[in-house]
Amino acid sequence: MNTRRTAANSIAGLAQSAGGVALSRRSLLRTAGLIGATTGVANLMAACGVADDGSSSGGSKGGTLTLGIDGTSAISDPAFYTTLGDWMVVDSVCRGLTFISFETNEVQPDLAESWEISEDGLVYTFTLREGVTFHDGTTLTSADVVASLGRQFNPDDPTLRKGASRPLSSLGASVRAVDEMHVELTLQRPDGTTLARLSDIGGRIISAAALEKHGADIGKSLVGCGPFKFVSATSGQQVVLEAYNDYYKGRPDIDKLVMQQVQDPSTIVSSLLSGDLSATQFAPYSAAEQFRSSDAVTVYDTPYGFDAFMMLDVRKPSLKEIEVRKAVNLAIDRQAIVDQAFFGIGDLPKGYAVPPAQDGYDDSLADLSTYDPDQARQLLESVGAVGRTLHVMAASDTWHPKAAQIVKQNLEDVGFTVELESVEPATYFGRIFEPSDRFHELMIWERNSYVPDPDNMVGFLASPTSIYGDVSTGLKTLPGSAALDDELYEAQNLPVGDERTRRYSEIQRSWAERYMTVVMLAVSTNFTVSSSNVKGLNTSALSNHRCFAEGSRV
Question: Where would I find the H helices in 275-399?
Fold first, then answer.
């Protein structure tokens, strides 16, 4: 017997990050070596043949919306991660079976108009929306869904590029067509986050005809059924999209959507103030006061949805004692990090690993991030660790350098000797997942909410079998840690509500007090600013690196 589910009764807010590695915002993306555009946006657009069409009056239809992005490889593929900008293209060109707007955390129907879930929670049967067309003129059927999701679950799919990330692969599912308009997704074990995960990048549906035509190069000529269709892409510069007239929800108000690579902070500031950039979520925190005092731009106070934290590798001799790891946690002046690294755009991590934007936020966990240097000194003395040398590693961009300086000073103040290395963003990601690295002891990092659910944060950071718990922190090597996976699995399958929040809070407290493998530093948001003439932009999504620009006007 099946249970009928639609948007009205779907589990709201259930979500999980794409794949086994959640992709952190700017630092990770630059591992592709795409950083370097430091010239003005207007000059770049002119060089690439994108002209100002003159229709920039506030709130009018038509015109071009230009979003500043971290980088582009000119490859936009739901199964192959390159940059945040390239995946923003995927968001704009394609749509999934389900949708989360980030203005609410509720899972809504998209290309699937409804679904049924078997009583054992293993089989999801989706009814597809009729009359939806792709940008190549083909009509949405189950064949498109099977082709798109099948390559997420099958590592040998011939349409995959070498090194494909396949963000939905950890679902461990199979997909088949029941008939032309019905698709069946079968899980190996129940997963209450399935519907929300299908709203993420990995769940985006591509034209099966286009996949057959382009194969592993589909990312160079992506064909979806979303509000914008692909026009052109130039690696290291920009991606140009145009409004799709036959989008099933109605044609977007803007004519063009341009994703423009810009990384130099001063260029981002000047381009926003001049109007060369319409909007970006990569605005430098240091320019907050300048932006807020200008009538040329709008500053958005978006919910705090990402964690700033420091991973501790417990396999290193310097961190073998829990007392030492707790001393590190107690030594950190988080308010100084919020004030000086984030320029006040953030808060203390009162919910530990769950930020305020997610269901399950519980500020009763604030004591897990207490600042108490005296107690830190006592713990070090109790195990004879005063003067012990620690190695701290951080990326050299955005908020990371200042936070690293504060961490270094805090640790030295309680009795550690600290060596700090600032690392180019293009190489940092590889190093935090390389345990043999000498500086792989204390690593400053961040995690974004691609989907707003505590499993997106706690489910990965506290799991001993995730890349964080296994490779980065060595949590997996600590006695009794295996039980965390069972506890996390139980929590993710609870309905959103007080009981689920309570279970995640219990897990977090146990994880922190017994193991202390992650020191939370702050919660913040990706600082989002637009030209004052931009209206209707979904900044709640954009501040989480999701791009739903179809309602925008310029």
Answer: 288-292, 322-331, 334-340, 373-382
Residues in the chain: 554
Task: Look up tokens 């420091």; give the residue.
Answer: 310
Three-class DSSP category at 290: helix
Take residue 237 and report the two structure tokens written for it: 């510069």
Q: Which amino acid is at 416?
A: F
| Interval 181-192: pLDDT, tens | 999 999 999 999
**Token pair 């202390």: residue:** 516
Where do the domains of the chain lie, and which CATH numbers do they carry?
Answer: 1-26+74-224 (3.90.76.10), 36-69+227-302+526-554 (3.40.190.10), 306-524 (3.10.105.10)
Q: Residue 112 and residue 90: Cα distance in Å, rounded?
A: 18
Burial class (CB within 10 angstroms; exposed 0-12, middle 13-18, buried 19+) of 35: buried
Q: Which residue has the tokens 């980065």?
A: 472
Q: At 310, is the secondary structure helix, strand, or coil?
A: strand
pLDDT in tens, 386-436: 999 999 999 988 899 999 999 999 999 999 999 999 998 778 878 988 999
H or E element, residue 434: none
Q: Phi/psi at 145 (nearest 5 deg)?
A: -65, -45
Backbone φ and ψ of 48, nearest 5°: -95, 5
Closest by CA to 325, choosing from 383, 409, 402, 399, is 383
Contacts of 144 (CB under 8 A, 6+ apart): 134, 138, 205, 206, 207, 208
Encoded tokens for 2: 């099946």
The SS3 assignment for 519 reads strand
What residues pair up with 310 in beta bridges, in sequence order? 444, 519
Number of helices (H), then strands (E), in the chain:
18, 20
What region does 366 belong to: left with phi over 0, alpha with psi -120 to 50, or beta? alpha
Q: What phi, psi does 236 have (nearest 5°)?
A: 80, 0
Instruction: Specify the pairing of strand 442-447 against strand 389-395.
Output: parallel
SS3 190: coil
Q: State which amino acid sits at residue 377.
A: R
Quick one: which H or E segment has residue 27?
A: helix 26-29
Q: Which of 89, 529, 138, 481 is nearest to 302 (CA)?
A: 529
Whole-model pTM: value is 0.84
Amino acid, single-letter form, for residue 251: R
Backbone phi, psi, residue 192, to 5°? -70, -10
Task: Decide: 200 and 167 in contact? Cβ < 8 Å.
Answer: yes
